[in-house]
Amino acid sequence: MERIWNDFNLKKPPFVTLPGKHSRFIIKLHAAIENYYSSHAQYDAEFSETAALLSRLMARRKNSFSKMKGFKDICKLNAALCRLLRIDFKRDLDSFRNTLPDVDYEEGTSIQLPTRDSYNFLLIRLIAIYELHRRIVECCESAAAYVTCQIRSNFFFEINTLLLAVLAKIHNLSIKLLNFAVSLYNNTLHYREKLPFNVKSKFLKDIQFEFPDKLEEIEIGPLETNQTSLTDKELPLKNLIQQEEKLAVVKAQKLKKTDVGQQVQRVTKLEQQKQFNIEQLSSVEEIKRFIAKEAKSRSINLSAAITTKVLSHEWAGATKLFERKVQSGEAKKAVSIFRKFLSLKIV
């Protein structure tokens, strides 16, 4: 049975109508189909939107959760949702319903009815929907159990909380849609014997297949709350998270150099200032040598000069005043003025 309902390349038999004498069941079949449409339409759009949201979340977090067992269950869930999308059951059901008579004939009246092969194809597709919804429910439960362990370990808390909410919604909607399919199958299975059989048909001729007498519904049970301590699932998860933190190379660690070299001892500006003794500038020649040395240091690197706190225009004014006093013959006064200037700015 699994090979047939899971065969998406199963060729649809052509719609053929043959004369039949059973007609009283048609009204009941119309009512069952209409009931399935009305109940299924309430949750169909919401189920499709939630499934699309799960696919986007899975694609966005594929690199973060690729090694997690729970994420593999989510991938299986997404694959089952995609396979469910490929089954356009409503289109096939509409085509079959359009071939049914719209008038309630008396029993025994010869009317044109679709063949049993077309109805068998619908029942096989209905079994496929049933089996895929069962797999979706199982994947939701296994993935939710693992995501809950991740939330307790505070691992990607925000995204896991969102995943848990999406899984819970898909689980709830899938059970409801599954029960609608079960109700349609159980209520309409016995009608296949009343449809005319096409002797020339080759549909399911070489395949040994028996339709199940009844499909089982799934009841939405109460939420089972486990203890908050570490369980058997959480212990390997905690070890896996620690292993992930060790294996995952952070960008800052990747750019970090292993050989940092030897730290160079640099002389601070305060040490340079302490090394300078203003008492050494006692003559005009010593001050001239100091001015020449400082002019060179200031031109190369102002921060390395002794007079780094002296502004450029102040330094230029002080040196010119010193030269002017020396040229006018006031050497002692020039030395005194320059030393006072340095003592105010440096010392």
TrEMBL record:
Q: Which InterPro entries match?
A: Nepro (IPR052835), Nepro_N (IPR027951)
- Organism of derivation: Lucilia cuprina
Q: What is this protein called?
A: Nucleolus and neural progenitor protein-like N-terminal domain-containing protein
What GO biological process term is on the record, naming one?
positive regulation of Notch signaling pathway
The Nucleolus and neural progenitor protein-like N-terminal domain sits at 5-188
CC terms in the record's Gene Ontology section: nucleus
